[in-house]
Design a protein that fits this description.
Elements lengths: L11 H16 L4 H11 L16 E6 L2 E8 L12 H9 L2 E4 L9 H11 L7 H4 L2 H13 L12 H15 L8 H11 L3 E4 L3 H9 L3 H14 L3 H13 L3 H9 L6 H22 L6 E6 L9 H7 L3 E4 L1
Parallel strand pairs: 2-5, 3-4, 3-5
Antiparallel strand pairs: 1-2, 1-6
Helix pairs in contact: 2-7, 4-9, 6-10, 7-10
């Protein structure tokens, strides 16, 4: 979290929140381009088992006539050691004239966007996080926050979803998984260097609203499950990365989506609604002369509500590379 300040003065709680942001910044900057999207399919599903079946790479080609659209299932936080990437990913980039990502990553560097992120993540009335959470959830959160060297009191004005995103990102970054090495960031920077046109499917604000729009009860339920599984997050994430690199679509689907469906409200807002919104855009890409590389979180491609299934249902040919 970088240069987070409040747009207006609040009670003493606001100074604690600003101080919390400063402390988080001191730990390492939490890149929201990594956090927002990866958590959407990861933070409540990390208990699944990855199966061993090696199908190819985490990228699919949809072709209509001479035009091709590549769909790349992204992992938004990686380690430097995860490079080089599988060859089909690089070839798809070379073969594409346009890059499409979930959001414009440059937008996240805008101070106005950073203020908007924090403003949405703050409790807007006089309540505190302790008042919103059950004693069990608050105590679990306290232990996990202290494990990353912070004090939960510094987050008293954070909404449960904001605490969840922040704590999960900090935990992963302490394990060496960083957004600066994420697939999105890698191809975004590469496209800028090569002056390829970059498009986005939605805005940062829209993504945040998917979390902020969840009921308080659902926010706490998801936060509590994340907290219970935080000690194993590194192991589980490594297993996800192995399945991702090997193109193990069945294993990824099991890991990323099976438990997610136990939370229909979150699944609808974070996956189904967004996939539905993206489909007309992806279909429009298939009507163009240029080739497109579309990079979205891997969980958005899989399952009966995933983009691959939706495209197949409309008669498009889908081939894993």
């Amino acid at each position: 979290m970088r240069k987070f300040t409040l747009a207006s003065k609040r009670s003493s709680g606001s100074s604690r929140t600003s101080h919390a942001a400063s402390k988080v910044k001191g730990q390492r900057r939490v890149g929201f381009f990594g956090v927002i999207a990866v958590i959407a399919f990861f933070h409540i599903v990390i208990t699944g088992n990855v199966k061993e079946s090696f199908a190819g790479s985490p990228i699919w080609r949809i072709q209509k006539g001479t035009n091709k659209v590549y769909l790349l299932g992204s992992v938004h936080l990686l380690k430097k050691s995860d490079y080089p990437l599988p060859e089909p990913l690089e070839k798809a980039f070379v073969d594409s004239q346009k890059l499409v990502e979930e959001v414009n990553l440059d937008e996240l560097e805008d101070p106005a966007t950073q203020q908007m992120i924090l403003a949405k993540g703050l409790i807007k009335d006089n309540q505190t996080l302790r008042q919103l959470l059950s004693a069990e959830t608050y105590e679990s959160a306290r232990k996990q926050v202290e494990a990353v060297g912070l004090d939960l009191k510094e987050f008293d004005r954070f909404k449960p979803w904001m605490l969840d995103l922040t704590l999960t990102a900090l935990t992963l970054e302490r394990l060496g998984f960083e957004p600066k090495y994420g697939i999105d960031k890698y191809f975004f920077d590469k496209a800028k260097r090569e002056r390829k046109e970059i498009l986005s499917l939605e805005t940062v604000e829209y993504q945040l609203d998917r979390f902020d729009g969840m009921s308080r009860k659902m926010q706490e339920t998801i936060l509590l499950q994340s907290l219970k599984e935080m000690d194993t997050v590194g192991k589980e994430f490594s297993e996800i990365l192995q399945a991702w690199r090997e193109g193990d679509a069945k294993g990824l689907e099991s890991t990323l989506l099976e438990n997610f469906r136990e939370f229909p409200e979150a699944y609808s807002q974070l996956v189904v609604e967004r996939n539905t919104n993206w489909m007309p855009q992806i279909e429009s890409f298939l009507q163009q002369k240029e080739n497109y590389l579309v990079v979205v979180g891997a969980g958005h491609l899989l399952g009966k509500d995933g983009l691959l299934a939706l495209l197949k249902a409309k008669g498009y040919g889908v081939e894993q590379l």
